[in-house]
Amino acid sequence: MSAEASVGGHAADSAQSAVSQPAFHNTDEFRNHGLLGSKYVKLNVGGSLHYTTVQTLSKEDSLLRSICNGGTEVSIDSEGWVVLDRCGRHFELVLNFLRDGSVPLPEDHRELEEVLKEAQYYQVQGLVQHCLGAMQKQKDVFETVCRIPMITSAKEEQKMIATCRKPVVKLQNNRGNNKYSYTSNSDDNLLKNIELFDKLVLRFNGRVVFVKDVLGDEICCWSFYGEGRKIAEVCCTSIVYATEKKQTKVEFPEARIFEETLNILIYENGRGSGPGGLHLLDSRGSGSSLGAEEEGASGGDRRVRRIHVRRHIMHDERGPGQQTVYKD
């Protein structure tokens, strides 16, 4: 009788113990095998709820497949939702890639980087490669585009030049800022300066920052900057005298402009900071001035090369024998 009571008491204790066990517990066995045999999966990713199949999550050898086959521990709440402590903003995109094998990616570079981070976290290698390919295309497109800033104020110009790490070439072009009439070839030379600017932009794209200024006081003037300061200047305008009136003449010193553009490359990647870079610029001879007047102006403790086109005097009112004529 006592034996039967003992057996009965043991059975009752076992039943009570079984009832006291919670319906969902965090044992390793439950975590590893909670999704085995299931067809559908409910995912709670940072508060974003998703309902999908085990087959979809298992298409690639990823973290999601490891979760489904029990290789990775997960937390499941009392309602059966698999809780993933991750932002759910781009998880729908990850699911759609697993479903279709391809998915449209966002054009914004920052969002694309966010998608790449999620793909790397979930170890979906197909989506990782898809994101990397899209980012490379964006980089290629960006490098082939020539962007030319337009100056809108002196303050903006100073800030741009001071913060730019690349050499800067500025073309100041303001045809309307003229008191006199233009000579016959001035308009053609002005267009040639603009065309040369466009060609230099294409040739040195990515190495030099080219800037246009259509609000300045100069009609046509090139300025060259390195390390936040002006290095050289080529002014292409002058006043000439022709039969009792003054005229504005625009020159096109193509060789000198191209030379100064090459000189400014010494400041690319900060290479002009050392004494060697300064020596290269200062040792340039004056024989290549191409009929221009070169002035040295102090800019702090360094010189600024200002090259002005020689003034061509075609006629003046001085007496015979005192007139001076300079020919092109």
From TrEMBL:
GO molecular function, one term: ubiquitin-protein transferase activity
Pfam entry (one): BTB_2
Alphabetical list of SUPFAM superfamilies matching this protein: POZ domain
BTB domain span: 39-139
Gene3D superfamilies (UniProt xref): Potassium Channel Kv1.1, Chain A (3.30.710.10)
InterPro entries per the UniProt record, alphabetical: BACURD1-3 (IPR045068), BTB/POZ_dom (IPR000210), SKP1/BTB/POZ_sf (IPR011333), T1-type_BTB (IPR003131)
GO CC annotations, alphabetized: Cul3-RING ubiquitin ligase complex
GO annotation (BP), single: protein ubiquitination
PANTHER family per record: BTB/POZ DOMAIN-CONTAINING ADAPTER FOR CUL3-MEDIATED RHOA DEGRADATION PROTEIN FAMILY MEMBER, BTB_POZ DOMAIN-CONTAINING ADAPTER FOR CUL3-MEDIATED RHOA DEGRADATION PROTEIN 1
Family: Belongs to the BACURD family.
The protein, known as: BTB domain-containing protein
Organism: Gasterosteus aculeatus aculeatus (three-spined stickleback)
